[in-house]
C-alpha cells in the first residue's frame, strides 16, 4: 500500500503541512506529501526555467535552491499580497517578453491545482498507475473531477456538492474514517 497525501494547497510549504498533519495523528514523512508546489517545482526542474514566484511567504521554503534572479516563467499561487500594480506589471512584462504561444510556436505548461498535470505528476514518483490510485477529497470540482479525468477513483467526503460533477465520484462517504474503512476493507483486494 503506497501512502501519499496529495493536496492542492499553494499556501504553505510541505514542512508546515507535515507539522499540522503530525499534530492530527498522521504517521507520514515529508516525502510522502505531494502539493501543487511539488508539481510546479518538478516541472520547473524538468524545463530548467527560473520563475517569478507570486506565492505566499509560507510557501517559499518549497522553492529553496531555485534561482529567481532572471525569471522567464511565472508561478501564481494563493498570495493576495502579490496582487498589486508593481508585481502584476512585472508578471505581465515577463509574459509579453516571452511572447505569445503562437509567436513562439510553443505551448505553455499550466499546472492547475487539480488538473490532469497535477495528478499525473503526483503519481510519477510512485509505482502506482492512475487506475490503482484513490483520490480522497472534499470538493467535487477541484478534487474528484481532475482525479477521475486521469483514471483515478475519486472518493468524496459528503459536502452537499457531490451531485455537481459528471461522472459522479466513485464513492461518497460521510467522514474520513468511513473512507479509510472502505479502502481497507473493500478496495485493496480489487487493486491487487
Question: Mind sketching the topology for me?
Answer:
Blueprint (H helix, E strand, L loop, with lengths): L4 E3 L6 H10 L9 E3 H12 L3 E4 L18 E4 L8 H14 L2 H4 L11 H9 L9 E4 L2 H10 L3 E5 L13 E3 L2 H16 L1
Parallel strand pairs: 1-2, 3-4, 5-6, 6-7
Helix pairs in contact: 2-5
Describe this structure in words.
The chain is α/β, with parallel strands linked by helices and 192 residues long. The protein folds into 2 domains: 116 residues, HAD superfamily/HAD-like (Rossmann fold); 64 residues, 3-Layer(aba) Sandwich (Rossmann fold), CATH 3.40.50.1000. The protein is 39% helix and 14% strand. The strands form 3 sheets. It has a 3-stranded parallel beta sheet with strand order 5-6-7. Strands 1-2 form a two-stranded parallel ribbon. Helix 2 crosses helix 5. 24% of the residues are buried. The mean pLDDT is 81.
Largest sheet: number of strands, sense, barrel closure: 3 strands, parallel
What structural category characterises the helix and strand content?
A: alpha/beta
At CATH level 3, the topology of the largest domain is: Rossmann fold
The parts where pLDDT drops under 50 for at least 5 residues are none
Taking all residues together, what is the mean pLDDT?
Answer: 81
Based on CA inertia axes, which overall geometry fits?
globular
State the total count of DSSP E strands.
Answer: 7
Amino acid at each position: 500500500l503506497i501512502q501519499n497525501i496529495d493536496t492542492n494547497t499553494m499556501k504553505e510549504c510541505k514542512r508546515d503541512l507535515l507539522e499540522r498533519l503530525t499534530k492530527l495523528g498522521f504517521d507520514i514523512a515529508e516525502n510522502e506529501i505531494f502539493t501543487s508546489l511539488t508539481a510546479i517545482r518538478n516541472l520547473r526542474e524538468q524545463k530548467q526555467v527560473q520563475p517569478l514566484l507570486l506565492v505566499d511567504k509560507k510557501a517559499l521554503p518549497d522553492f529553496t535552491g531555485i534561482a529567481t534572479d532572471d525569471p522567464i516563467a511565472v508561478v501564481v499561487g494563493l498570495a493576495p499580497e502579490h496582487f498589486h500594480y508593481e508585481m502584476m506589471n512585472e508578471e505581465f512584462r515577463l509574459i509579453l517578453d516571452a511572447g505569445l504561444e503562437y509567436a513562439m510556436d510553443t505551448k505553455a505548461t499550466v499546472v492547475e491545482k487539480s488538473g490532469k498535470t497535477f495528478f499525473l505528476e503526483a503519481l510519477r514518483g510512485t509505482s502506482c498507475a492512475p487506475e490503482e490510485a484513490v483520490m480522497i477529497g472534499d470538493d467535487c470540482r477541484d478534487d474528484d473531477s481532475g482525479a477521475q479525468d486521469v483514471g483515478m477513483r475519486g472518493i468524496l467526503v459528503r459536502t452537499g456538492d457531490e451531485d455537481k460533477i459528471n461522472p459522479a465520484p466513485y464513492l461518497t462517504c460521510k467522514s474520513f474514517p468511513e473512507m479509510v474503512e472502505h479502502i481497507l476493507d473493500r478496495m485493496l483486494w480489487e487493486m491487487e
